[in-house]
Amino acid sequence: QVQLVESGGGLVQAGGSLRLSCLASGNTPSWYAMAWFRQAPGKEREFVATISWTADTTYYADSVKGRFTISRDNTKNTVYLQMNTLKFEDTAVYYCAAKYTSGTLLSLNDYDYWGQGTQVTVSS
Q: What is the spatial distance between Cα 51 and Cα 72, in angstroms, rounded to a whole number?
């Protein structure tokens, strides 16, 4: 069955950088898009960034635009999230998600598969 596994999370100081990876494995069909969401304690899960698997189109939440970059490696079925100039408010569990059908890309229910998440903690 399809599995999404995130890695690369950890503890960093404000202003630092991290690179998250999400590997899709198993009986993986062709992706329409893959994305990153995050959830801070006591908060709802929110959209961070997404990338189309075929059109190479990207979208970012306003809160991370200019600081985060999403990219993909189709051959490896892997999506990355390069996070620069990290802020304390970026602290959250980051989740990888995959979508198979066309449509909107910014909502939780747009995506079909989810990873277990990786913790990103940014200290002041």
A: 8
Q: How many Cβ atoms are within 10 Å of 28's Cβ, its own excluded?
A: 15
Task: Report whether 85 contacts 69 (CB < 8 A).
Answer: no
Kindly report, residue by residue over 103-121, the tens digit of the pLDDT.
888 999 999 999 999 999 9
Residue 8 in this model has a pLDDT that exceeds 90 = yes
Of 115, 117, 67, 58, which is closest to residue 89 (Cα–Cα)?
67
98 and 34 Cβ atoms separated by less than 8 Å: yes
Backbone phi, psi, residue 81, to 5°: -135, 105
DSSP element (H, E) containing 25: strand 18-25
Q: CA 26 to CA 82: how far, in whole Å?
A: 25
Q: Which of 10, 28, 113 minimizes the C-alpha distance to 76?
A: 28
